Each structure stands twice: as C-alpha cells, then as structure tokens.
Amino acid sequence: MTLVSGKAGVGFNQWVNDRKVGKFNGHLRDNDFERKTIENERERGRIVSVSDKVRKVLWARSGNMCAFCRKELVVDASDRNNESVVGDECHIVSGRPAGPRYDPSVTTNSIDSEENLLLLCRVHHKLVDDQPETYTLEALRDMKASHEKWVRYKLAEEVIIKPVKISRVKTQIPRSLRRLSSGKDVADLISGADTASFDYDELKTPEEVEAVGGFLQAAEDYGDLSGDSEAYYLVQARTNLAMLLKDLEERGFRAYGVRETQQITGGVQSVPSDWFHVVIRVVRIFDAG
Questions:
Q1: Which of 90, 123, 156 is the last residue before a domain boundary?
Q2: What proportions of the chain, in percent to the nearest 5, are helix, strand and coil?
Q3: Is pLDDT of 222 > 60?
Q4: Do 187 and 202 fall into the same domain?
Q5: Are 102 and 15 contained in the same domain?
Q6: Which regions of 133-243 does DSSP assign to beta strands (E)?
Q7: How far apart are alpha carbons 227 and 257 in whole angstroms?
Q8: ∠ CA(130), CA(63), CA(134), 5° rounding?
Q9: Domain identity same for 61 and 147
Q10: Does residue 152 share a domain with residue 76?
C-alpha cells in the first residue's frame, strides 16, 4: 500500500524526484537506471497523485479517524508546536507491481480514487502492508465500508432530550403508613429522599400550628442536610426531631410516614432510575384541650 502524506504525491513522488537528480543516501546513482524506472512507472500510471478533492472526501467520510482502531489522526497543538497529523492516506490496491495487493487489472484512474484509499494511523498502515495475506483486498474494502458507515451513523445521531417524568411503580406503591415513634425513625425515613410531601389534620390553635409546622419543617431540613453534613450536626438534628415529635404527641398528634420508590425517566439519562419520595402525615389522635 502506497503512503500518501502531506502534499499530493509525497512518498513515491519524492522517491522519484530524488532519483531524477541521481540522489540516493547522498550518493549519485546511475541516472539512466533511475530515468528508466521513472518512465516505466509513468507508463504504468503508478506515480502517486491524489487530488485535493479526493483527499478531502476521504478524510471527511472517515471522520478524521483510523478505519482500523478509530483513533483520531490529528493531534492537538502544544504550547510550542503546531498540530501533528498522524494518519496516512493508504492505497488498498498498490500502484506498484511489488506493492501489497497489487492488481494489474486495476486501471490507472482507479489507483488514486477515493474508493481505493483507506485512512489509517501509521501503526495500522504498516501492519496491513506488512501482512497483505491477512489484510486482503476484500478485508480492507470491508473495513473501509464498515468504518465509513459507522461514521455516517455517528454523525446522524441526534441527542433527543425527552421531558423528565416521574412515575409511580405499581409494585412499589405502599399500602399504609407506619408510625414514627422516635427522632431516629424520622431521620431514617427522610434521609436520602429526593422529594417529600407533608400533610396534617386541621389545626385549631396557634400553638398547634407552631408545633406541627415546626416538626414538619425540621423533618424537611434534615432531608436537606443529611447527605453531606458532619456527624455532630446530624446528632443535633435528630435530637431536635425527637423533642418536636414528643411535643406533638403531648398535644394529641401522631406522625406517620412512608418511603415510596418511584421511577424517573427522560432528561439526559438513557435509562430510568429510582426516585425516592417520602410522605409524612401528622394525625390528630385526641383533643388535648
């Protein structure tokens, strides 16, 4: 497979140009032999000449990635240097009789066509040319087609952000609420919840409003701080919940609660995830007055 890198024709063309002036490792060689070699190559139409249009089409269809390993083939610039191109435009069918996968039936115009070019990193370029019996003409054509199809698919993908939806799961709907008899019960229930809802029986006096409202607010606050607060503050908050709960019961109320596992879908996540919703209800048991 003939390497084409940089300007069109660099590679074999450079080899030809060097030999036009008799250069080879800094020594003069037989110009007649070199001239004959060049003429033979020209007669065969094997001097590499990939047009800018073909090059642009190849890089665009390949997505700037190696068709073998799919690594990007342009390395970003550093503070001191410009970008580096680490990819090769490789011939599937070589234009040289001694080249890999050479086929004399392939026409001159087809050698440098986009259909006969494969974009590879330099490691895999060498690999496929060193092992032409493994990486046959058919194998490389399949690789090219598969890679370019994959690039088209990736470019055509649209990220559709669906509306966020929280749904109840039939098997997770609780049948009843349980009594909350300690500060720990309330803390364990509300800790880690995503959302919470609160309900209470009709209140008759400002003192009841203060007691019920204070308890429910403390429960909500604990849910907000329980995730990343220090242990000292969590202990204080639990103790406060216990005191407020005791005050409620002395006023003729009881607190009940339940945690329900719901399901959230949509947004940027591709799969549903659990959503924990807590319900706390304060119920009047007797009239303390």
A1: 156
A2: 40, 20, 35
A3: yes
A4: yes
A5: yes
A6: 162-167, 178-179, 195-200
A7: 20
A8: 20
A9: yes
A10: yes
Are both 81 and 110 inside the same structural domain? yes
Residue 289 falls inside a structural domain? no
Please give the tally of structural domains in the chain.
2
| 34 DSSP assignment | H
Q: Mean pLDDT throughout 278-284?
A: 96
Q: What is the pTM of this model?
A: 0.47
pLDDT of residue 21: 41
Closest CA to 168 of 44, 263, 95: 263
Residue bearing the bigger pLDDT, 248 or 20: 248
Residues 141 and 196 in one domain: no
What percent of the chain lies above the pLDDT cut of 70?
79
Asked if 119 and 67 count as a contact pair (C-beta separation under 8 A), the reply is yes
Strand 87-91, strand 117-121: pairing: antiparallel
- Do the domain assignments include residue 118? yes
Q: Is residue 21 part of a domain?
A: yes
Rounded to 10 deg, the angle between the 206-225 and 231-250 helix axes is: 160
CA distance 227 to 193: 10
Range of the domain at 220: 163-284
Angle between helices 183-190 and 206-225 (to 10 degrees): 50
Give the per-residue pLDDT at 162: 80
Same domain for 172 and 152: no
- Reported as a pLDDT band with limits 50, 70 and 90, residue 73 is very high
CA proximity to 11, closest of 70, 96, 71, 75: 96
Task: Identify the burial level of 241 via C-beta atoms within 10 angstroms of its C-beta, where 0-12 means exposed, 13-18 middle and 19 or more buried.
Answer: buried
Is position 42 within any domain?
Answer: yes
Q: Are 195 and 53 within one domain?
A: no
Q: With left for phi above 0 and alpha for psi between -120 and 50, is residue 111 left, alpha or beta?
A: alpha
- Burial call 197-226: b when 16+ CB within 10 Å, e when fewer: ebebeebeeeebeebbeebbebbeebbeeb
